[in-house]
User: Fold Phosphotransferase IIA-like nitrogen-regulatory protein PtsN from Jezberella montanilacus.
Amino acid sequence: MPLLAKTLTLQNVVLDLAATSKKRVFEQAGLLFENNHGLESSAVYQALFDRERLGSTGLGFGIALPHGRVKGLTTPIAAFVRIPKPVPFDSPDGQLVNQFLILLVPESATQQHLDILAEIATRLSDEALRLKLNEVSDPKIVFNLLTTGLI
Assistant:
């Protein structure tokens, strides 16, 4: 089973999230993880923001992979968020970003964290998948695309 299938749930797929900046995406992600997983929204926001200060997690092609370590988390969890209007994200290709695959890992995460990030980056390098993720309006289909890789 792909690692992403173990970390992403359907309830964490949010399409057309109202966010107009990188900061707002991180704030909304914090609320999502707070509501769905009981994490403190400010801790999620801070973890994502702290990691982003080290360098952009923008992958290019309108996609970013924000991630961070969260104290008290015992297993990795992920969310996929799409916003209607792309925002600046300092991506390597200079493109604005409207799709975010957000990964939170335990504070002590090591190789598993890197394996999940590598899997996600590999999966999102598929142009056909990226296009589908951008046009599909049903969260269930987006979830299946991300967790199975089948288009």
Summary: The helical segments are 3-7, 22-37, 41-54, 111-124, 127-135, 139-148. The first strand starts at residue 8 and ends at 14. The chain has one domain: 3-147.
